[in-house]
Amino acid sequence: MKKRMRLSVFMAVFLLALMLPFSNAQAAALKDGTYSVNYTVLKAEGNAVSMANDYWLKPAKVIVKNGNLTVQMTIKNSSWVTEFKVPGNGGYVDTTVLSTNKKANTRLVQFQAQSLSKPITSKIHVTVKSADYDHDYTIQLKFDESSIKSLSSNSANQSSGAAESQQPSKESTNKADSSTTKQEENPQTGDTGQIGWLLVLVLCSGGFLARKWIIKH
């Protein structure tokens, strides 16, 4: 009886170990092409949303080529966010500016990412001359892998030429902000579904063992 119980517990733990990393491997398994992905700008530590979250338009665009990830983001209030650096070369490096829109006060930037599974720690410098405000901040870019959607596969080759056309209008900016707010209010469902299946498996195993124990005793 004890051997069977130990075996059932071992199987439950084994299934848990297999299923939990599944969602984190989603980005690594992406085929070459272009994708959109939602994300949130967090404070330097923990999961609290940073005020800088309002300075980034969502979603981001991810270009996958030969397993390499290139992330493109549009920064609002571009004149305020004077620096945006990501990990690289043993420290932090500037993101590449693809285009700017002075009228909309936005700029499109890109950088290389190793993975979307873990938050990417970044450095920004915010300067607001009219308010005599000048500070450095550390932020985290947390990507929602369950929101990844495939875009045109040809976009990867056209990203540089089409960068200027990607600048959002006021209407699209409002829509992006609205969708971001809704996303933050709604919990992610991908991991929850997997945990639900695990609970079902564990409960079924527990019920089966309990039934056999009652019959024997």
What share of residues are in beta strands? Answer: 35-45%
In CATH terms, what is the architecture of the largest domain? Sandwich
Largest sheet: 9 strands, antiparallel
Rg over CA atoms: 22 Å
- The percent range for helix content is 25-40%
Distance N terminus to C terminus? 12 Å
Number of strands: 9
How many discrete domains?
2
Question: Order of SSEs, N→C?
Answer: HEEEEEEEEEHHH
Estimate the global geometry from the Cα principal axes. globular
Biggest sheet strand order reads 5-4-8-9-1-2-3-7-6
Helix count, DSSP H or I runs of 4 or more residues: 4
Q: What is the CATH domain class of the largest domain?
A: Mainly Beta
Give the overall average pLDDT: 75
As an assembly, this protein is single chain
Kindly report the CATH topology of the largest domain: Immunoglobulin-like
Please mark out the parts with pLDDT under 50 across 5 or more consecutive residues, or reply none.
16-25, 154-195
Structural class: alpha+beta
Notes on the structure:
Residues 1-27 form the signal peptide. Residues 30-151 form the NEAT domain. Residues 152-167 have a biased composition (Low complexity). One of its GO terms (cellular component) is peptidoglycan-based cell wall. Residues 152-190 are annotated as: Disordered. The chain is of the alpha+beta class and 217 residues long. It has two domains: 1-29 and 187-217; 31-186, Immunoglobulin-like (Sandwich), CATH 2.60.40. Helices cover 30% and strands 35% of the residues. The protein has four helices and nine strands; from the N terminus they run H-E-E-E-E-E-E-E-E-E-H-H-H. It has helices at 2-19, 155-158, 170-185, 190-216; strands spanning 33-42, 60-65, 68-75, 81-88, 91-94, 96-101, 106-113, 120-128, 133-150. The protein has a nine-stranded antiparallel sheet. Strand 4 (81-88) and strand 5 form a beta hairpin. Helix 1 (2-19) packs antiparallel against helix 4 (190-216). The termini are close together. The relative contact order is 0.19.
